[in-house]
Structures are given as structure tokens and as C-alpha cells.
Amino acid sequence: MSTKKVRVAIVGLGFGAEFIPIYKDHPNAEMVAICRRNEVELNRCGEKFGIFKRYTRFEDVLNDPDIDAVHINSPIPDHAPQSIAALKAGKHVACTVPAATSLAELKELCAAQRASGKVYMMMETVVYSREYLFVKELYDRGVLGKIQFLRGSHQQDMDGWPDYWPGLPPMWYATHCVSPCLAILSTPNQPAHADGVSCHGSGRIREELIKRYNSPFAVETATFSIRGHDVCAEVTRSLFDTARQYRESFDVMGSNVSFEWQQVEGEEPILHTRGLPEPQIPRRIRVPDYAGRLPEPIRKYTGAIHDATHLSFVQGGGHGGSHPHLAHNFLMAVLGLQPAFPDAPTSANWTAVGICAHESALKNGEKVKIPEF
């Protein structure tokens, strides 16, 4: 492995603070700066993690020549403007999802990435979760056979979240269910992109929530076609006034074996094997941890805790143990050792599926073509 270090600044210290110890322990990273508007919270975080370079202004981060890369975890409306500004300032960019809230922002983001030559990576947790890595491995090994259908869903109750959330169209925050449906069909040289989407809205949220974005739907469900493939994917998303435990999920229907994400937190996922007697077709399986793909100092952040016999482990870690995988992939991309996944055009496509899906829902399901980036 390279001994070079990428000097990282983290912007946004709510969810973003979870990545600080990962970068601090990664052998190819130097955690040099943090940024948050609230100075009291900024200093509290800085003292906790021993980060001495602290900024309340994003512009000061961009003007710091000692920073190579910024990891953006700010509110959704800031994602595209901050990512574009950072690329134009010559910084590599990792940004939490979604990449943007409009097609115009996505086009500008991709143009800025091309012009800068710097790495942009949307930090999509699901495609680095242990469940996704497991089913992707099965597919690449040929265990699933031919993929026949894909389904993703993401249910979450966002009542009480910060001000920009109330009334947000469900599909504007859809990358957690869209991304695995496209990632599984991708190869390092040929990412799979959606090319058209049809979506229907269902139900109605409270009137006070509707007026912010003029979006009435409690649930949005979309189907989209995938360029170069004969496979269709279906995704469902809800944010308000729908009773459901938090769930990010991904199901794959294969010709030989199918995979179903766990229905309830704490359960194990299911494999369905074709050709067995009916009662034996489904079986719950223990998904392995993929900490071994990471440098040893950050393996602990996947949530794997080995027992005394080293034969089993307790699985934990945020978002399916994805955080250290995301940070590692980003750093390796910055060092030129592997491609960023998802890169800027792929991140734009994954985000555009949701933006175009909501447009389709407002048009009673009319199919909307997804632009190329």
C-alpha cells in the first residue's frame, strides 16, 4: 500500500463526526481540519477528537493550502454548491447523499469535476454495507445466475428533523434505495446507469408539510429502466405520515438464487434457492463482515467484534459497517489507486433517478427520460 497521506477536512459535524476517528486511524489519511457554523459545537468536537484546526466558514476551508480533500456532511441544500466550490478550489470531494436537488446542479457538478480533474465521490452507504457487499459477491461469483428483477426501499420517519426536511418529496432522497439496484450491475469499467423512470405518488401528508415543496405524497414508488440491460428496478420511498420502522433494503431476484434484505431490524436476510422442495427454498443466512478488505487500523469501525474462539462476531457499525469502506475507497481514489465509486457521473445518475421520479409523480406517472452526465 502507498505510504502517501491525504490531508482531509470534514465539513458538518453531526453525522460527519463519525468519520473523524476513521480518517485519524487510516494509514493514508491525515485528519487536519473540521468545519461547523456553530462555534461552540465546533470547539466541543475539536477538543473531543484532538483536532486543532477549526473553521466556522466553509470558504476558509477552501482557502487552506494544507487541505487536499473535503468530506462534506452539510444539509442537503448545501451539497451541490459546496461540492462545486470545493472542486473549483482544487480540492478532492467526498459528499454525503444526495449529490444535488436539481438536474441543473448535477450538470454543473459534473462539469466542475471534469474541469478540475479532482476526485468526486458521493458517499452512498448502502453500496458499502455488509448486506450489499455479500449479495454483490454472490452475483459476481455467478451464484445468483441471471438477475431478473431488482427492488429497493427506504422508509424513514423524518418528523422533528431540521427545517429543510419537512415536506421534502420522498424521491429527492432516494439514493439509498436506487443505488444498489444500479451498483450490482456495474463493473469497474462500465457503471450501470438508469435511463428512464415512471413514478406514482400515493397518499397525502399533513397540509402544513405540503406547502414547503408543494409535494403532497406520503409515498412515492418508481420503476426505472437500466441502459444496456433487460432488467427493471422498482423503488419505494416514504418520509412522513407513514407507519414503518426505519428500513433501507435491497432485494435481488435471480434465475438460480434470490436475496431478500431483512424485513425487521435484528433479523437475518433470506436466500431463496431454486429447485429445492418448497419448504426448503428460503433460508436465513448470516452475512459475513468484510473488514478484511480494509487496512487493519480501521477494521474495528465495521462493527466486527470477535469472540475468544475467533469463530463468530457481533455485527454493528453505522449503516451496515459501511463508513470505513467509504472512507477507504475515497482515499484510494484520491491517491489514484482505484476509481471512485460512485464517481461524479454515476453519482449524478443515481441522484437524478429520484429527481426525475418526483417529476413523473407530479405528471401522474408519465415516463421521464434521465439525462446523461
Q: Biggest sheet: strands side by side, in what order?
A: 3-2-1-4-5-6
Question: What can be said about the biggest beta sheet?
Answer: 6 strands, parallel
Radius of gyration: 20 Å
Percent of residues in helices: 25-40%
| pLDDT averaged residue by residue | 94
Low-confidence stretches: 305-316
CATH-defined topology of the largest domain: Dihydrodipicolinate Reductase, domain 2
Domains (count): 2
The end-to-end distance, rounded to whole angstroms, is 32 Å
Task: Describe the protein's architecture and organization.
By secondary structure, this protein is of the alpha/beta class. It folds into two domains: 6-124, 3-Layer(aba) Sandwich (Rossmann fold), CATH 3.40.50; 126-335 and 352-369, Dihydrodipicolinate Reductase, domain 2 (2-Layer Sandwich). Helices cover 29% and strands 23% of the residues. The chain has a six-stranded parallel beta sheet with strand order 3-2-1-4-5-6, sandwiched between helices. A six-stranded mixed beta sheet has the order 11-7-10-9-8-17, with helices on one face. A three-stranded antiparallel beta sheet has the order 12-13-14, with no helix packed on it. Strand 9 (219-226) and strand 10 (232-238) form a beta hairpin. The longest helix is centred in the C-terminal third of the chain and has 19 residues, at 344-362. The radius of gyration is 20 Å and the shape is globular.
Write the layout of secondary structure elements.
Blueprint: E1 6-11, H1 20-25, E2 29-35, H2 39-49, E3 53-55, H3 58-62, E4 69-72, H4 79-88, E5 92-95, H5 103-116, E6 120-122, H6 130-140, E7 147-155, H7 175-183, E8 194-202, H8 207-213, E9 219-226, E10 232-238, E11 247-254, E12 257-260, E13 270-273, E14 282-284, E15 305-306, E16 313-314, H9 318-321, H10 323-334, H11 344-362, E17 368-369
Parallel strand pairs: 1-2, 1-4, 2-3, 4-5, 5-6, 7-10
Antiparallel strand pairs: 7-11, 8-9, 8-17, 9-10, 12-13, 13-14, 15-16
